[in-house]
Amino acid sequence: MRYRLLGRTGLRVSELFLGAMTYQKPTAEARRIFDLYADSGGNVVDTAQMYGESENVVGELLQGRRDRFVLATKYTPTRDRTDPNAAGNHRKNLVLSLEQSLRRLRTDYIDLYWVHVWDKHTPIEETMRALDDAVRAGKILYAGVSDAPAWLTSRANTLAEWRGWTPFAGLQVPYSLLRRDIERELLPMAQAYGMSVAAWGTLERGILSGRYNRPGAAASRVSPDSMSERDRAAARAVVEVAGELGVTGSQVALAWVLGRGVHPIVGASSAEQLKDDLGASGLALPEEAVRRLESAVAFELGFPRDFVEEVDRSPDIYGDAVHLLDAR
Known about the structure:
It contains 12 helices and 10 strands. By secondary structure, it is α/β, with parallel strands linked by helices. It has a single domain, classed as TIM Barrel, CATH 3.20.20. InterPro entries: AKR, AKR_Detox_Biosynth, NAD(P)_OxRdtase_dom_sf, NADP_OxRdtase_dom.
């Protein structure tokens, strides 16, 4: 397992994050998964306040080794459906959600505290100042944002820069060969601000593992009959590349995400499945294989990215010396 720095901080985070959403009981298998992940060098466990008993389970499984992990959790969704102030990104919900998570996780600090989703009813200034207060109080160390538009995230980090607040060090988004939307605005924005990007849904509920392309494949998280031709085309490309490289489809799909500088969040249901996912670490896909994977299904950047890319080296726009410019 290799490590990268979290955003523009000095915190070392493993290239694969362990997603803990599905762990609702501290079973022997869950403990084996955590042990295998730790033994492989993994150090980031990602959960959330809204994931049922997940925080309680993670807190128990990390007893005696909590400080060796980068513990990440999230807030925004409601803690009490009957209370309008028990949800959202405002200061009151942040404070109460954080205290609840600290109790459940059996810790006195959170390494990475994510805003779970954009709350359009709360000014981003309020959220950023409240997060900074929690950092100054020592209850969280770093902040991140999940499932928010690029313009909002860039505004938040600009405000933080100007006002001396803690910026978002990480961005959490869906990303896979089948869902590349973040390449239009979010990924370039994160790169410009030096933010780490963590991705959920990298295997698209198992579609990109190739399991549903097999004859007579049984339904699991997906029914094979519900798959589109686009789904099948992507899965076929993954399986073909995997066969040529002597690896599994899951490893190819995860390695593609890793190759884009993004941290896949792996949510294994068994130690055996996690062992397979961990095989993506260190797997370098040949350029030709990457081209085949990306051409298997159509994807367009859309305006303005496609237009800007098209005119980027145009002498009609930038003059006759444009070809002499060393691009960043």
